[in-house]
Write a structure and sequence with these properties.
With about 450 residues, this protein is an alpha/beta fold. Helices cover about 35% and strands about 20% of the residues. It is globular, with a radius of gyration of 22 Å.
């Protein structure tokens, strides 16, 4: 990619803006014109190398060539120069546990023993509102530092953890999906609710937070082994109370977990069927991992319109296996798929890192994930999977101005690689292979620039 030779405009790129000001971001604008799994990936992504995004009242009001749009600007427009950088939609993380931020990178266990040794003791602390607020704040700042503006987030069994998370998200005006974990068996006493208390507490939280500003609620049974059939059925009943509620849980992450589910639910035909019989397999349902799904599972998910959250970093860390992405994306029974960091099984909140690991997971199955396809799964594809494509996931007029600015020259190694890139897709591939939070130059939430957190 050739660096811009345009002279710099005479303005301060760090000029603070208010919600009343109009903001214009100048740089290489990335926009999807199609689904890269349905057409040649290179043709699915449009890149205007000297483009501009006009933001008014927190939404994109115009996007296109700088030369065509800039002459129409009024005197109140604040222009921010991001030339030599890529500007696209904020990343969307479809599976992450904010209470596990403190146990990230904990050594030496596979899934079930890892939960018992590290995760459950840490989640106990979230009964305390002050602690939950502290971690929620740090988690959201870290997400935004990584260019992620929306996530589907697991809290803990404690209502306090949900209150803390949504309070902090509301303060930042981020569009987040989250919910109280439901667990009424096979967990420590200090982390169990009951089927009825889980229903009642979730209902109160839904009434308070779902649709309040940009906050969205997800009914959240942790996974089938930690919920009785009664609790799962009540989770389905909760979903019936509002058509736009989300549901999130885990599915077929490991073979040992699958065996456990079969022993607990011997009258069901499989792991997915446990959820299906409870009314949980539907649009806006997000199933984390799905590493060991079979053809019957994929067909059911396609027909139901639910989403699979591909978490390759976590799957590699815990030795769970590699999700068969291109099997799920088969055109004749396409399944919605998004990418997830799965902190703390994953060891990074960077969606660039997840794109890297998704490429490696696909390679292990003899398939190649194109960088435009990976970028789509982390942005526009995830928005479609979650039913939020009319709010986020693209850089288009009327959509919410949640944006990520990426710097391909952020480090010396990245810079030498970027200079060799001849196409934007090659530049995206280099970013996904070499990038981390240093490559995120700026994050905008409803048009307001996030101030990066400091150590």
């Amino acid at each position: 990619m050739i660096r811009s030779s345009h002279p710099r405009d005479s303005f301060d790129s760090e000029t603070p803006q208010t919600r009343q000001q109009s903001l214009a971001l100048r740089g290489t604008i990335l926009r999807f014109v199609g689904n890269p799994f349905d057409m040649p990936p290179e043709m699915a992504l449009s890149a205007d190398t000297d483009g501009v995004i006009l933001i008014e009242q927190g939404r994109v009001s115009a996007v296109g060539s700088y030369g065509q749009i800039a002459p129409q600007f009024g005197s109140d427009v604040v222009i921010v120069d991001h030339r030599d950088k890529l500007i696209g939609p904020g990343f969307i993380d479809t599976h992450v546990h904010y209470p596990q931020l403190g146990v990230i990178a904990s050594y030496g266990e596979q899934l079930l023993t890892w939960l018992e040794r590290y995760v459950f003791p840490e989640e106990r602390r979230f009964a305390e509102q002050t602690y939950a607020q502290h971690i929620a704040s740090a988690f959201l700042d870290n997400l935004l530092d990584q260019g992620t503006t929306t996530a589907a987030v697991y809290c803990t069994v404690h209502p306090e953890s949900v209150e803390a998370f949504f309070s902090e998200s509301s303060r930042r005006n981020t569009r987040m999906i989250a919910g109280k974990v439901l667990m009424d068996r096979n967990a420590p006493d200090y982390l169990r609710d009951t089927a009825q208390s889980g229903f009642d507490e979730s209902r109160r939280l839904i009434d308070k937070w779902h649709g309040r500003g940009r906050q969205l609620y997800a009914v959240t049974p942790r996974f089938a082994p930690t919920s009785t059939e009664t609790q799962l059925e009540l989770a389905g009943a909760l979903l019936d109370t509002a058509p736009d509620l989300f549901m999130q849980t885990h599915l077929l992450e490991t073979l040992r977990e699958e065996e456990w589910v079969r022993s607990l639910f011997p009258h069901r035909t499989g792991y997915l069927d446990v959820y299906d019989q409870a009314g949980l397999v539907r649009p806006r349902s997000i199933f984390g991992h799905a590493v060991h799904v079979n053809e019957q599972d994929l067909t059911r998910c396609a027909h139901a319109g639910c989403t699979l959250a591909h978490c390759p970093t976590s799957n590699a860390f815990l030795g769970s296996g590699a999700f068969r992405l291109f099997d799920a994306m088969r055109p004749d029974r396409r399944v919605h798929v998004g990418l997830g960091t799965d902190i703390g099984g994953g060891n990074s909140l960077s969606m660039l890192r997840v794109m890297n690991d998704a490429y490696c997971a696909a390679q292990s199955h003899g398939t190649s994930l194109h960088p435009v396809q990976a970028y789509w799964l982390a942005t526009a594809g995830a928005a479609q999977a979650l039913g939020l494509q009319h709010q986020i996931g693209q850089v288009e007029p009327r959509l919410e101005a949640d944006l990520c600015v990426m710097d391909p020259y952020a480090t010396p190694l990245m810079a030498q690689r970027a200079k060799r890139a001849e196409t934007v897709s090659d530049l995206l591939f280099a970013l996904s292979m070499l990038g981390d939070d240093r490559a995120i130059s700026a994050t905008y939430v409803m048009g307001l620039r996030h101030q990066r957190s400091t150590p």
